[in-house]
Amino acid sequence: MNDKNRITFGLIVFIAIVTFPFWYNLGKASSAPELKLSEKAKAAKECVKPKEIMRQEHMQILDLWRDTVVRDANRAYKSGSGKTFGMSLSSGEESCLGCHESKTEFCDKCHNYASVAPYCWTCHIAPEEKKPEENKPEENK
Amino acid sequence: MNEKYLYSLIAVIALFLLAYAGVEAAGLQYLFGIIIPYLAIITFVVGFAMRIMDWASSPVPFRIPTTCGQQKSLPWIKHNKIDNPFTGGAVVIRMILEILFFRSLFRNTKCKMNEGPRISYVWEKWLWLFSLAFHYAFLTTLIRHLRFFLEPVPFLLQILEKVDGFLQIGLPGVLISGVVLLAAVIFLLLRRILIPQIRYFSLAADFFPLFLIIGIAVSGIMMRYFTKVNIVGVKELTMGLVTFHPHIPEGIGAIFYVHVFFVSVLLAYFPFSKLMHMGGVFLSPTRNLPTNTRAYRHINPWNPEVKIHTYQAYEDDFREKMIEAGLPVEKEL
């Protein structure tokens, strides 16, 4: 039996699948997104925790905060440097998005790049870009 | 302790230390993040192709399928079309069922001696179940990882990740495939270690890939849920690899390089090991041939040309002498 042609065809298909990422990205120059801090965040100089920790563990902090707010009704967070922050994603000046004003610039850029789809915004409403709103409803949990 | 799994375990631990120390102490990010992954993927593709072409040039002169049902026979005998395929189409169905559902493994039984002594074959589906879970979890994990190698990330990939993480446990959300992969590979390892007969015929080459895959799964799970790495930096590195503009971004933890090194070792090891069953399953002559030996004559393609002398030619040569000697001939003079 001589199936060499068929086997070669199958092998070529396999190699095409394995090398798919190489030719999918052909001719595209990739560059990681640059994080743009808002003026307000730049002025504040410090976040609730150091930058490296925030970059890698912000999701766990937010998860913990959600539970703290919802279960213990504790809405104030005291950072290591003694500053107090509001434990809220999107309501008020002291919240995350109160300082990092733009969701598209601050959240979505990296999330889209790394294909992360957090479910924050199934409950929360993102503040309108450029004008922080005051009367957001409390976290509707 | 059994030296076969001990050696494999030590090998994987040594690989871990090599990558960890290489990155943390010696600063060899460029070696572990760029050079070794490139070499590994080249070894994988070239080695895989050579192994397959080697198999393709091995002759399969006769039909040797293992059959599990009644062969096509007289019209009033019921023919088992899938387990004893007669046509190419039936073979394709048999192969699809074998490759996607591990049908032959489903037949696995356990042999047991009862009093008497009488032998009995007992239900044993765990190996089939965990193998299936392992392979599909590995496939899902592999496809999920394409998000690090494609930009923009295709919509279907985002859907897959959503389905994989639909339990929404914790943050970052638990992905089912990762948990199933680790659980199933640990089952496959324990099976080899705890069952005496299987331990007896298991070799270091059986344990090494299992330990290596456990290493890959554990380092991946560590990165995602516990120690954390700079994920944007990771994608910057992987995108650099697939666009041929490799560079090392700052601030990716050593655990990432360990993970990549483990995967590189697995890829480079692949063509030289039992893992080639990935390609080999398509080429197994006991599965991919129809059982039509009764209906068609299969002539061995490299049979030597045999000079034959037919009776007619013989009679032509000796007719006169035969008639002289009084022997009967078919054709008179």
Fold and architecture overview:
The complex is a heterodimer of chains A (141) and B (333). Mean pLDDT of chain A is 82; it is low at 131-141. In chain A, a hairpin with a 5-residue loop joins β1 (76-78) and β2. In chain A, 45% of the residues lie in helices and 4% in strands. With 141 residues, chain A is mostly helical. Chain A has one domain (36-141). Chain A has six helices and two strands. Chain A has a two-stranded antiparallel ribbon. Chain A is elongated. Chain A starts with a helix and ends in a 28-residue tail after the last helix. Chain B is mainly α and 333 residues long. Chain B has two domains: 3-302, Transmembrane di-heme cytochromes, Chain C (Fumarate Reductase Cytochrome B subunit, Up-down Bundle), CATH 1.20.950; 307-333, no CATH class. In chain B, 58% of the residues lie in helices and 4% in strands. Chain B contains 13 helices and two strands. In chain B, strands 1-2 form a two-stranded antiparallel sheet. In chain B, β1 and β2 (118-123) form a beta hairpin. The longest helix of chain B has 28 residues, at 29-56. The relative contact order of chain B is 0.16. The model of chain B has no long low-confidence stretch (mean pLDDT 92). The interface between A and B is large, with 40 and 49 residues.
Core attributes:
heterodimer; A: 141 residues; mainly alpha; two-stranded antiparallel ribbon; 2 strands; 45% helix; 4% strand; elongated; B: 333 residues; Fumarate Reductase Cytochrome B subunit
- C-alpha termini separation of chain B: 88 Å
Strand order of the largest sheet of chain B: 1-2
Number of strands of chain B: 2
The helix-and-strand class of chain B reads: mainly alpha
Major sheet description of chain A: 2 strands, antiparallel
What is the CATH class designation of the largest domain in chain B?
Mainly Alpha
Oligomer category: heterodimer
Query: Over the alpha carbons, how many angstroms does the gyration radius of chain A reach?
Result: 23 Å
Distance between the termini of chain A: 68 Å
CATH superfamily of the largest domain in chain B, called what? Transmembrane di-heme cytochromes, Chain C
Query: What sequence of helices (H) and strands (E) makes up the elements of chain A?
Result: HHHHEEHH
Which two protein chains have the largest interface (Cβ within 8 Å of the partner's Cβ), and how many residues from each? A-B, 40 and 49 residues
Structural class of chain A: mainly alpha
CATH topology of the largest domain in chain B: Fumarate Reductase Cytochrome B subunit
Task: Average the pLDDT over all residues of chain B and give the rounded result.
Answer: 92
Shape of chain A: elongated
Number of spatially distinct domains of chain B: 2
Taken together, the total number of domains of chain A comes to 1
Largest sheet of chain B: 2 strands, antiparallel
